[in-house]
Design a protein that fits this description.
By secondary structure, the chain is of the alpha/beta class. About 40% of the residues lie in helices and about 20% in strands. The radius of gyration is 19 Å and the shape is globular.
């Protein structure tokens, strides 16, 4: 049975706070071991644990939505594509041998925001198109349409919030982007990805590294809305997989 949607405000803030804490500790450990910091932000993310709390939060949403924890298998997995053999997604949620949800989990700091914005949006668009083309061509053959989500965490500072000086273009760009910051452009990007059904849901979080405050530029891209979409997917997934014994106790228990 799908459960009511909890308020995730405090747990999102705690998970993002843990993300900053782990990044700081990894940077300090790298400096102590090597005597210097790795180039850019590399020292903060090479430890491999910086997303642990956010990963656990996403798993918790699936459990809150009614998927028994003992039936879940959640980890990074390659997903078949059309233009590529496969591409690994950060969070692939499986029940038995069936995929309940696929989520990419990314973050961006203030270094080279323009270049990294283009890289991240190109990657997100390519990943989605690759999967949906594989579905259309019958390479991904599943009774239930795959569910794709994207969680993006931006460091809340001037690199993302100050309007970007526009570059010349060979045709007039969409005026929606006029006087936009990179955070604004991410908001437009993810809202349009969901509107065009290239993603089923997206979350855009802005986190202040100093104060720990977390905000969401758009209600439609808030974590609460993202979690609601996951809850809806779980209701659909359980209804279309009635052969799974959803009430069975964990192995070895009665």
């Amino acid at each position: 049975m799908t459960n009511p949607l909890p308020d995730y405000g405090s747990v999102v803030a705690a998970a993002v706070g843990d993300y900053w804490d782990v990044r700081r500790s990894q940077a300090e450990r790298s400096q102590a071991q090597a005597g210097v910091l790795n180039p850019g932000l590399r020292a903060e993310v090479t430890g491999g644990r910086h997303f642990d709390a956010l990963h656990a939060l996403l798993v918790r949403v699936f459990i809150d939505a009614g998927i028994p924890a003992h039936l879940l298998s959640v980890r990074k997995r390659p997903v078949a594509g059309y233009f590529r053999r496969s591409k690994s997604w950060d969070v692939v949620v499986m029940v038995a041998d069936r995929v309940a949800g696929i989520i990419e989990l990314k973050s961006m700091g203030p270094k080279d925001p323009g270049k990294n914005f283009n890289n991240r949006t190109d990657e997100a668009l390519g990943q989605a198109v690759d999967i949906w083309t594989a579905v259309e061509r019958g390479i991904i053959d599943t009774p239930l349409r795959p569910w794709l989500g994207y969680f993006m965490l931006l460091e809340d500072n001037d690199a993302f919030t100050v309007p970007v000086k526009p570059q010349g273009a060979v045709w007039p760009p969409d005026p929606t982007f006029d006087a936009s910051s990179y955070a604004d452009r991410y908001e437009i990007f993810f809202e349009r990805m969901v509107r065009e059904r290239l993603l089923d849901a997206a979350c855009l979080a802005m986190g202040d590294k100093v104060t720990g405050e977390v905000r969401f530029p758009s209600d439609t891209l808030s974590f609460q809305a993202f979690a609601a979409a996951i809850h809806g997917r779980c209701l659909q997934f359980m209804a279309t997989n009635p052969d799974i014994d959803w009430d069975a106790p964990p192995s070895g228990k009665s």
